[in-house]
Amino acid sequence: MLTFTVRRLLYGVILLFVIVTLAYLLLYAAAGDVGRTILGPTATPATVALKNQQLGLNSPLLSRYFSWLGHALTGNFGNSWFTNQPVTTAIFTRLQVTLTLVFGAVIVSAVLSAVLGVWSALRGGSVDRGVQLFSVLGFAIPGFIIAVFLVRYFALGTHWFKPTGYVPITTSFSGWIRTVTLPVIALSIGLVAGVSQQVRSSVIDALRQDWVRTLRSRGIPERSVLFKHILRNAGGPALSVLALSFVGLLGGAVIIEEVFGIPGLGQIAVLATSQGDVPLVMGLVVAIGVIVIVVNLVIDLLQGFLNPKARIS
Amino acid sequence: MTEAAVTGVLAPDVASEMRAARSHLARRFLKNPLGVAALSILVLIVLAAIFAPLLTSYNPNAVSVLNILQGPGAGHLLGTDGAGRDVWARLLYGARYTLAGALLATVVAAILGITSGLVAGYYGKWFEAASSWVTTLLMALPGIVVLLAARAVLGPSLWTVMIIFGVLLAPAFYRLVYAAVSGVRNELFVDAARVSGVSDFRIIARHILTVVRAPIIIQGSIVFGIAIAVQVGLDFLGFGDQSIPTWGNMLNDGFTNLYRDPQLVVWPGLAIVVTTVALTLFANALRDELDQSARPRSRRRAVAAATATAPEGPDSDTVAHEAPDSSAQAPLLDVEGLAVGYPQADGSVTRVVNNVSLDIRRGEVHGLIGESGSGKTQTAWSVLRLLPAGGEILAGSIRFDGEDLSRVPDAKMRDIRGGRIAYIPQEPMSNLDPSFTIGTQLTEPMRIKLGVSKSEAKARALKLLGQVGIPNPERTFASYPHELSGGMAQRVLIAGAVSCEPDLIIADEPTTALDVTIQAEILDLLRELQRELGVTILIVTHNFGVVADLCDRVSVMQKGRIVETGPARSVFAAPQHPYTRSLFDAILDESQARGPYAETRP
Predict the structure, then answer these.
(1) What is the pLDDT confidence band of residue B3, given thresholds at 50, 70 and 90?
(2) Do the Cβ atoms of B386 and A217 come within 8 Å?
(3) Terminal-residue alpha carbon distance, chain A
(4) A-B interface: how many C-beta pairs under 8 angstroms?
(5) How far is A170 from chain B (nearest CA, A)?
């Protein structure tokens, strides 16, 4: 189990390293005249040259890369070119907001998917058709379109929820609920569509297994057969779908945050990339990479818990 | 080598079968109402985009400061947007750019993914390893973030962004094609083509691509939908080329003016929803039909086989070797006139067990013997009331200790199962829940049935494991099913069956799935347990050796009916029914050649 964890972690770190290296080299190779970008067209060539020198852009790309990497390993990602704020500060203040949304969506989706999937697998008939229809719509309609409609009809129509902004849970719980509910719904619908379908087909599949008959032959109550044995066996594939969707969820959060005006990672991602703020973009690449790796590792460990065979391989 | 020669060499029926399957698929798809509706909507949208100039006289980019945010009507079908542009015109022209952009991304993804998938799947080697690495890499990146970064350095061109997104989406096709190709790579017909000197290119084009064509179309429509979503998303964020009308730019404008005219987001939103839902429905319908066309043949065969098993009619000629046992106590299990059937979709009922009568006395081992499909397992499952989905007891009674099991309520039946009637399955490995330890699976029924504590249940389980001959009970207790051998797993299942002290054990071919040496050990174990516990056993088997070894009495079953019954000794000594005799003749015997198979009923 330990070697398994270590190997997965190592694999993730290598992947992260490759992504970061590619991103650094490509971004700087394509960045053009950075000093001019920052100072704008009115600056004199001399000040532009001075700015470039201040930023250390005159040394060769590779040596800059290694020095950046060295600093990055100690947790120093430099400062934003435009606000001069340390990259780590800029990211950390917003990370919490984005993670709230993303993990909120994951938890909501996991619970809803389990309920809907099991329900439609067992009931069949019109319940099943209803869940299927929901899944098709949820899969097909982009999350931010749902978000736009939620703002249009719920936030503006009913005033139950706030159309924009974010209130931390530490400030006001009701304010937090009123700001996060709609974004979490918008993020969750697509996920529920995919995961509930997987739960449904895994449950149908598990119900056909021989060991279900044997469990019943032992007089195990149906409740236990279903919720203890079948759901645990159906959990693995559903978790894989959840894991595969996670990267998409982070991407989706970028646009959803923009719709609801939530100050999360998405907002600085939009800002940093539109300005060409390379240090900040690099910091974001690392942050997202780390989140993806950690989440995948956690899901692998959960898989091992659910499926004993996965523990060895 | 010419093409004709190639098709001649390569099992021609494979090629024609594929062609038939394909034309089938198209025809079947056209009969799927949802699929046809989705396809029609898509065609309408594409036509509307192509003939946009005919459907509106407005220029989608004509800004008019005097006509800002006008409502529908008054010359503008859907009103005007924040810059006074005609919404209907922008919607139509927007379809052109949005669909063309998504198409570009899909085509790039398809070309890259399919070629690399074919090469990696067909040739393997280093290309395979490299491709799978690149795939993992691409899939670890949130697409939208990459696109934002790319847009920052490359500018806002719709086409550039869509080409890059196409690259990011290539894994969707790569994985599909790679899986399919590496699957058929070593098929016989591909080998045959290779041996007969057909070029790799031709093999791929003719024999491999045809296999994945329909899945590629399905994947393509899904990717197309994703490309629309991402492109609209970028434009919505204001990162697109603002000079062209796209649905994303319209959404952006609508959202900016949300408070002044909340209707503006609705039109592009609806256009996107209708298009992406139609794409998904189209893909789903195609996939359904693809699944269907792969299935019907085997289903027909299965039904035919099942139908053959049990002809209806009275059970007139059961050979009984003894007078009914009226003197002694009542039998523990008394099955009378049992019929089991599976209702079919067309309203008919396929009978698999017909008028079976069986009585099993207390403390005896009763063999139920017959060839595969004779209905013996169905009979056993009926006693447990655990017939597979759709199976029904059509007639007869199953009296167990005086109570008719075919009529007791479910809750009562649950009490009887495990506690009074236990079950030993045929295939040990598939009959243990793979996700729980042996210990959990052994103790759970004991805690329910015997109401013992967790530690008490554990102590009992360990003792049982020792009793069934498991060398290290502690270790097996903590093991998962996949860590056991088949023989061990069967011992565990036997331990489970006797754990709650049942009166009757139903063992369904308990040795069939095991190695010959293990078979003997398991039979010994059953005999020992029977002697120790005095339990009654109904053992289902197709093996006369098992009957001779273990059984006091035996019933011979054929085509859903009992044809001969009596003490094992007497049936062995003087088989009366022709079918019983043919079963005996079928046993390989040194002294005697095999006799002819007796078909007793046409």
Answers:
(1) very low
(2) yes
(3) 10
(4) 187
(5) 30
Is residue A45 a contact partner of residue A52, using CB atoms and an 8 Å limit? no
User: With b meaning 16 or more CB within 10 Å and e meaning fewer, what string describes B504-514?
Assistant: bbbbbbbbebb
- Residue B279 near residue B217 (C-beta atoms within 8 A): no
CB-based contacts of B71: which residues, under 8 Å, 6+ apart?
B79, B261, B263
CB pair distance less than 8 Å for B153 and A215: no
SS (H, E, C) chain A: CHHHHHHHHHHHHHHHHHHHHHHHHHHHHHCCCHHHHHHCCCCCHHHHHHHHHHCCCCCCHHHHHHHHHHHHHCCCCCECCCCCCEHHHHHHHHHHHHHHHHHHHHHHHHHHHHHHHHHHHHHCHHHHHHHHHHHHHHHHCCHHHHHHHHHHHHHHHHCCCCCCCCCCCCCCHHHHHHHHHHHHHHHHHHHHHHHHHHHHHHHHHHHCCHHHHHHHHCCCCHHHHHHHHHHHHHHHHHHHHHHHHHHHHHHHHHHHHHHHCCCCHHHHHHHHHHHCCHHHHHHHHHHHHHHHHHHHHHHHHHHHHHCHHHHCC
Q: Is B333 helix (H, G, I), strand (E, B) or coil?
A: strand
Question: Residues A81-90, buried b or exposed e (16+ Cβ, 10 A)?
Answer: bebeebbbeb
Question: Distance (Å, rounded) from C-alpha B560 to C-alpha B564?
Answer: 13
A274 touches chain B (CB under 8 A): yes
Residue B294 has pLDDT above 70, yes or no: no
The order of strands in the sheet holding B392-400 is B349-360, B333-343, B392-400, B403-404
**Residue corresponding to tokens 């646009």:** A255
Range with lowest mean pLDDT among A177-191, A204-218, A268-282, B76-90 = B76-90
Distance separating alpha carbons of residues B313 and B207, to the nearest angstrom: 51
Per CB-CB distance under 8 Å, the chain B contacts of A148 are 251, 255, 265, 269
Q: What is the mean predicted confidence (pLDDT) over B460-481?
A: 92
Q: State both tokens at B378.
A: 């169905």
Cα B291 from Cα B232, distance rounded (Å): 33
Pick from A69, A78, A117, A98: nearest CA to A249: A98
Residue B315 has pLDDT above 80, yes or no: no
Residue B573 tokens read as 């000594």
- Lowest average pLDDT, out of B45-59, B248-262, B299-313, goes to B299-313
Q: What is the mean pLDDT of residues B200-211?
A: 73
Q: For an interface test with A, give the residue of B42, B134, B144 to mutate (most A CBs within 10 A).
A: B144
Which amino acid appears at position B202 of this protein? R
- State pLDDT tens for residues B164-191: 899 988 988 888 888 878 777 777 777 7
pLDDT value at residue B12: 40
> What is the complex's ipTM, to 2 decimals?
0.81
Q: How far is the CA of A124 from the CAs of A14, A201, A209, in angstroms?
A: 45, 12, 18
Positive or negative, the CA dihedral B403, B409, B412, B418 is: positive
A276 reaches B (C-beta below 8 A):
yes
> Mutation test of the interface with chain A: which of B237, B275, B504, choosing the one with the most A Cβ atoms within 10 A?
B237
Dihedrals phi, psi of B136, to nearest 5 degrees: -60, -45
Q: Which residues of A touch B137 (CB under 8 A)?
A: 15, 18-19
Residue B324 pLDDT grade (very low, low, confident, very high; cuts 50, 70, 90): low
**Residue with tokens 């009793």, as numbered in its chain:** B467
Q: Which tens digits make up the pLDDT trace of B340-383?
A: 998 888 888 888 888 888 889 988 999 999 888 888 899 999 99
Residue B284 near residue B37, CB atoms below 8 Å:
no
Chain center to CA of A88: 19
Please report, rounded to a whole number, the percentage of residues in chain B having pLDDT higher than 70: 87
